[in-house]
Amino acid sequence: MSEPILEVQDLRLHYLTRFGEKIHAVDGVTFELKKGEILGIAGESGCGKTTLVSGLLGLYIPPLHHTSGDVRIEGKSIIGMGVERNRKEVLGQKIAMIPQGALNSLNPTRKVKDLATDMILAHEEGADRKVVYDRLRERFGRIGLDAEHVLNSYPVALPAGTKQRVVIGISTLMNPKVVIADEPTSALDVSTQKAVIRLLFELLDQGIVSSMLFITHELPLLRHVSSRIAVMYAGEFVEHGTTEQVIFDGRQPYTRALMGSMLSAEPGQKSKKPIAIEGAPPNLAKPIAGCRFAERCPVARLDCPTTKQVLRIVEGREVRCKYAESTPQTVGNMGAGST
Amino acid sequence: MFKGLLKSPAFLFGAGLFVLTLLVAFVAPVFMNLDAKTRVGLAYVAPSSAHWLGTDHLGLDMLSRLVAGLRSSLYVGFLAGIVATIVGTLIGVYGGYKGGLLDDILTVLTNLFLVIPQLIVLILLSASLQEGRSRTLIALIIGMTGWTWSARAVRAQASTLRSRDHVSLARINGYSTLGIVVLHILPYLLSYVFMVFILQTAIAILSEATISLLGLGPYDSVSLGTILNDAIKSEALLDGAWWAFFPPMILVTVIAFSLYVVNTAMEGVFNPRLRK
Amino acid sequence: MSDLKFEAKDLSRTFGHGKRLVTAVDRVSFSIKDREIVSLVGQSGCGKTVLAKMLLRLEAPSSGELLFDGKPIGGVPDPRQHWRKVQAVFQDPFSAFNQFFTIRSQLKGSFTLFETKPSDKEMEERVDQALLAVNIKPKEIEGKYPFELSGGQMQRMLLARIFILRPQVLIADEPTSMVDACSRASILEYLMKLKQELSMTIVFVTHDIGLAYYVSDSIFIMHAGKIVEQGPPDDVTQRPKSEFTKKLLDDIPNVHRTWIDRTTAA
């Protein structure tokens, strides 16, 4: 019924290294985001999620290049716009990112209001500083901050949770249609994390932002935040389904391994040995013939390293595994692996 | 890291300027006849095509004297810079790493040297060494009285390194304080110390110029400061002989300025948070 | 002869003075038994790292008592005696090693701690053995500097060092927080292997209560410098006594429980 707000079609992105090598960090990603939806992307370091975020924001600044594929926000493609146009029309307004610990790496000798206003003016040249300040004040107040106090403070004087709220407030000031939260709570302690996630929910429920992409390696978080989850590995989605399907009934061995590596303080968990997968994701500079997870997959079959794997529908969700129907319940610690 | 330096226009400008002065001081004499010891005319003859900067109060070629003076000033500056940097670094790194009582003692020492005006000490020491005032001695005196700046700078850096994990690991490996300072603190400070050295050299060149200007400079050689001193004593400006006064002054300023610019550029590259 | 490795009575550590006084560890009392696995659990700033450093003799107590093997920790002037028995692995393997020297030379550097250094040949052999114990072939790291190795390899270098030093107690400061989920279990396996072989006592310092629950015999929950709860994992997580622990457990997103109720209107 409703048109998707964000459409990503077979997006491929690559990096050019100093030696002229092409690293295909994102190698064919397709998905949609509808209004009010939160899509979680689960992945570990090196899976390509950071590159994907840059690509979705339209930030194609060398060494990052767009290979092929499309990104459409509200029907309009944002590919091929050039940095200037992207900054003016897309970034912050149509799609915005909430980074990790943003206020920590900025100039510590400037007050929050100056830092915030500068960030806004970078997108809206010529805007009136006073007008921007008023907007910030109003928005900060709406998201539960003591606006006057926070705006006139230095970042170093604010607690981590407040800083993250400030970052959220600034990033979403222009009511972007899509907001990307990239590990927004990884540096926060547990109680502050809960408050920040609550805030993100409020933004969505109040219509300040229309849809959200939540990226993290912390699976329990995704279980509570997103309605759908895509698991990313070596530049591709290896599983994409509802939260229930992915967390409790993952069909790709990597998904199962990720879920199995969770350690939680729940009764009965003490006897469950977490899954250990040796090795590391493959080098994406070289073309890979078969399954990218094959060399680490505990249940890999003989033809897995040489058979190209495609996403197909298994039990109502997309899986990238030829043998997905017969993935065992517990994967891992079964001998197979690279070493 | 060094590539960043080469990209910085400030660094290229400062370094270029400094290299230019080095070339003038050391390479030019090879190609030009710069005899600073032979009378070539009357006192304070104006610049001409034969003598680009005219003559000084003794009728010697001003340009030759200037280049010779430049060499002396650079020598004294470098030597004093090295001494000040070494002394200051040793004091700063031990105090910064160890903290506690040692740090307190060294800080008192540093503050003591800081409070006593370096100029007064230089003047007193220089005045008491009438005949023995060689360039080297002056350089050593400047170095031994000017190290406080580097001590404080290095101390601040060393004390932030103290809490790093690799230092904790070295401690629980049983390394001695000397071992930790040499292997685990100093290598991390090298680029910073180099920056400090550049600034100390600039300061030393200015210090030498000042005491030479006051007539307490090296007895055995000509430096930019002694040229200025001669110009003042012989009332060059009153005679309208600007070429005896302004060139050495400008040169001292240029050298110090170029080194300051290089230092600032290095700070910008090594400490990116300072960049806006 | 008690089998208590560590005993603390009203142990405190403060920094600064007067108005700027910061109490990092606030009159804690506890005991850790020989061969026990204990976790210090808490959020950042709770004092667990400072307490761990005190157990490691890298920070001295400001007041109170801290005993190791029945004797006060600062008692013997030479701290190396303590470090021969108590060692550590750190959270970030890259910042834990010096970037200017090869990793192998730094592993060899651990022998500085020994009272009598073995012969060069023996040192090389023992380094090789330690590398094999963590599944690294010596050739893999020959001549390499830390930045040339992967995170997983560097993490194992920290463990290899422990194989060389063979301490009685290991303080593990967030050993898995910088590691990918898939590699976490293998780090834990190496640590358990170490524990078995060397009959070690392990003190984990972590913010992850799930990890603490899985590995520990005993959990100490810390907050604002105090130990607010201690006990076996099931007691602490199922029957918490302190309000803080209850709130902490409630705030952790758990896969099987409701976390945030989104139906309540903003």
Keywords:
heterotrimer, B: 276 residues, mainly alpha, 11 helices, 0% strand, C: 266 residues, alpha/beta, 10 helices
Give average pLDDT of chain C, whole number: 91
Based on CA inertia axes, which overall geometry of chain B fits?
elongated
Rg of chain B, Å, rounded = 22 Å
Rounded average pLDDT of chain B? 86
What global shape of chain C is seen?
globular
Strand content of chain C: 15-25%
* Secondary structure tally, helices of chain C: 10
* Biggest sheet features of chain B: none
SSE string of chain C, helix = H, strand = E?
EEEHEEHEHHHHEHEHEEHH
Biggest interface, CB < 8 A? A-C, 41 and 42 residues
Termini separation of chain C (Å)?
61 Å
- Reading the helices and strands of chain B in chain order gives HHHHHHHHHHH
Task: Give a quick rundown of the structure.
With 339 residues, chain A is an alpha/beta fold. Chain A contains 10 helices and 12 strands. Chain A is globular and about 65 Å long.
Describe the overall structure:
- The complex is a heterotrimer of chains A (339), B (276) and C (266).
- Chain A is built from 10 helices and 12 strands.
- Chain A has 339 residues and is an alpha/beta fold.
- In chain A, the strands form 2 sheets. An 8-stranded mixed sheet of chain A has the order 6-7-8-3-9-10-12-11, sandwiched between helices. In chain A, strands 2-1-4-5 form a 4-stranded antiparallel sheet, with helices on one face.
- Chain B has a domain at 77-214.
- In chain B, helix 10 packs antiparallel against helix 11.
- The longest helix of chain B has 37 residues, at 62-98.
- In chain B, 47% of the residues are buried.
- The mean pLDDT of chain B is 86.
- With 266 residues, chain C is α/β, with parallel strands linked by helices.
- Chain C has a domain at 101-166.
- Chain C is 35% helix and 24% strand.
- Chain C contains 10 helices and 10 strands.
- Chain C has helices spanning 48-55, 79-83, 103-109, 120-133, 138-141, 151-165, 181-198, 209-215, 233-238, 243-251; strands spanning 4-15, 22-33, 37-41, 63-68, 71-72, 86-89, 169-173, 201-206, 218-223, 226-231.
- In chain C, the strands form 2 sheets. Chain C has a 6-stranded mixed sheet, with helices on both faces. Chain C has a 4-stranded antiparallel sheet with strand order 2-1-4-5, covered by helices on one side.
- In chain C, helix 4 (120-133) packs across helix 6 (151-165) and helix 6 (151-165) packs parallel to helix 7 (181-198).
- The longest helix of chain C is centred in the C-terminal third of the chain and has 18 residues, at 181-198.
- Chain C is globular.
- The N and C termini of chain C lie far apart (61 Å).
- The model of chain C has no long low-confidence stretch (mean pLDDT 91).
- Chains in contact: A-C, B-C.
- Chain A binds chain C through residues 44-45, 189-191, 193-194, 197-198, 201-202, 205-206, 217-221, 223-224, 247, 257-258, 261-267, 269-270, 273-278, 280, 296, 339, and chain C through 43-44, 135, 150-152, 180-186, 188-189, 207-214, 233-234, 237-238, 247-249, 251-257, 259-260, 262, 265-266.
